[in-house]
Design the sequence.
């Protein structure tokens, strides 16, 4: 895996995301309730605090849980909820060790269909349907992982020319378009809720 991505909008973090399958998965896991670029900078911060230039699922899986929480909590914190996310990152890595011998790209290697890949992503700790579909779209649009029917399996996130999620971020301009889309979705949901009252 060696691609150029602009998810974190920070060259060193994006370089790691472009060649590390585990970094990409961890970034996606962290992508909730914080700005997208903050989430996708997280893998680099974790690697640096571990004294590494990449993440290792085996190392993280067996890391002392309290020490790992402290590692993510150090200022600046890796996430708004560092303790909860430290636990989730460790659970993800433990699952990857148990199911894929710690090889994150094993999740999508050799997968024949988008439906099968979606099922594998849904099985990951911390990955619900929406997160799995967004990551599937990210794999297809930016990482060259395109099993048959991947766009359909990714749902609306797989649509070409859409600006719905991190899968569509290729630079600052597309980041702003995705942000605008998310704000519009929130506004529409708020209006619908107000209309019901």
Sequence:
């Amino acid at each position: 895996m060696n691609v150029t991505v602009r998810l974190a909008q920070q060259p060193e973090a994006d370089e790691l995301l472009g060649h590390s399958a585990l970094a990409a998965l961890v970034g996606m896991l962290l992508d909730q309730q914080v700005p997208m670029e903050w989430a996708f900078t997280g893998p680099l911060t974790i690697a640096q605090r571990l004294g590494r230039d990449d993440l290792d699922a085996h190392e993280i899986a067996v890391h002392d849980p309290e020490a790992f929480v402290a590692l993510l909590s150090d200022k600046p914190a890796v996430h708004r909820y560092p303790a909860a996310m430290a636990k989730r990152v460790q659970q993800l890595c433990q699952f990857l060790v148990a199911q894929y011998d710690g090889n994150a790209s094993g999740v999508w290697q050799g997968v024949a269909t988008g439906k099968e890949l979606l099922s594998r992503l849904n099985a990951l700790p911390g990955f619900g349907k929406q997160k799995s579909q967004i990551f599937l779209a990210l794999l297809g649009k930016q990482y060259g992982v395109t099993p048959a029917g991947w766009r359909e399996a990714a749902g609306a996130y797989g649509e070409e020319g859409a600006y719905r999620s991190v899968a569509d971020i290729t630079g600052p301009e597309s980041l702003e378009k995705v942000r605008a889309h998310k704000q519009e979705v929130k506004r529409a949901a708020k209006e619908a809720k107000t209309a019901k009252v």
Q: What stands out?
A: The CA atoms of residues 23 and 43 lie 5 Å apart.
